[in-house]
Design brief:
By secondary structure, the chain is an alpha/beta fold. It contains 10 helices and 12 strands. α8 links the parallel β8 and β9.
């Protein structure tokens, strides 16, 4: 069976059907016709001796055995893609490839600074960077599409190493011309009557901040809900409201936007995710060391500027 499983096209077709939920979308994803995808999946099932998918009420669903097999197949394809990229980089004389994923709060500040410092140590290193949420990072790490993920804690992810980078407090973002910008620290009471811009993915932060307002009998009206930190900051700059966010989101603020401490103090951790079953390379170890150093230095700078 090992020799017969060498057809990577069959694996790619089956994984595409699984991830896309049907043959039609799978065919579009991998650039084949629907009949071709169906033939590849059927050939793979014949080789395996069990069905990967079952059709129930005109709907294609993965079988129990199929789910177990396809998880490993996706990981194997991810490993193959990494080997292909690495071979190409080495053939061109480059120093390897590091693929990073980061949540929005870390993708625009910590990630670029850390990678710039990493390139000083490994000048021939090739880099790929994607901005995505924690769930997508875990999927990418499992499939070996990513080498390292940067997230805000908590992050309970089975099969992942969680390396702490730094802790930082929540801050209030507001226009520099706002009447409250003269204060070093802002509380729910001083923020009463203001409207806020929320980031839809920061559920823990939003919950803790709302609880702080609730405890003093105040509400936090929302003017805009956005899906990324850069949008949130841009809307604060545009005067649509204030925002309460992670301090690490404020590495890069446009002219006219300032950050002020929020009280009560709300601390959050930031960490790097890697696969627990992978041998950690020296490049990744260096990346983590630099991320910690740069984060600590940047927080000190931001505190002195507040």
């Amino acid at each position: 069976m090992t020799e017969r499983l060498q057809d990577i096209g069959q694996l790619r077709a089956a994984v595409a059907v699984w991830r896309e939920g049907g043959v039609t979308r799978a065919a579009t994803r991998i650039g084949l016709t629907q009949p071709a995808v169906s033939r590849l999946v059927a050939a793979l099932e014949d080789t395996l001796g069990f069905a990967l998918f079952v059709r129930e009420r005109k709907r294609l669903t993965v079988s129990e055995s199929g789910a177990a097999f396809l998880i490993e197949a996706e990981a194997a394809l991810g490993g193959l893609a990494r080997l292909t990229s690495l071979a190409s980089e080495l053939r061109l004389g480059h120093g390897g490839l590091l693929r990073i994923a980061a949540v929005s709060a870390l993708a625009h500040g910590l990630a670029p600074r850390t990678l710039a410092a990493l390139r000083q140590v490994y000048p021939d290193l090739s880099l790929e960077v994607e901005e995505c949420d924690r769930a997508e990072q875990v999927k990418g790490l499992i499939s070996r599409h990513f080498d390292v993920g940067l997230v805000a804690l908590p992050s309970a992810s089975p099969g992942m190493n969680v390396d702490m980078i730094v802790e930082a407090d929540a801050v209030v973002l507001l226009p520099a011309t706002h009447r409250l910008a003269r204060q070093a620290e802002l509380t729910p009471a001083t923020l009463s009557g203001e409207t806020f811009i929320r980031l839809n993915e920061m559920r823990l932060l939003q919950s803790l901040v709302d609880s702080a307002f609730d405890r003093v009998g105040l509400t936090r009206p929302t003017s805009v809900v956005v899906d990324s930190t850069p949008l949130m900051i841009a809307f604060v700059a545009g005067g649509l409201g204030l925002a309460i966010t992670h301090r690490m989101s404020t590495f890069v603020l446009p002219k006219g936007v300032v950050a002020r401490r929020f009280a009560p103090q709300l601390s959050f951790g930031y960490a790097a995710l890697t696969r627990a079953d992978d041998v950690r390379s020296r490049v990744i170890t260096t990346f983590l060391e630099l991320a910690r150093t740069i984060a600590i230095e940047a927080l000190a700078e931001m505190e002195s500027d507040s």
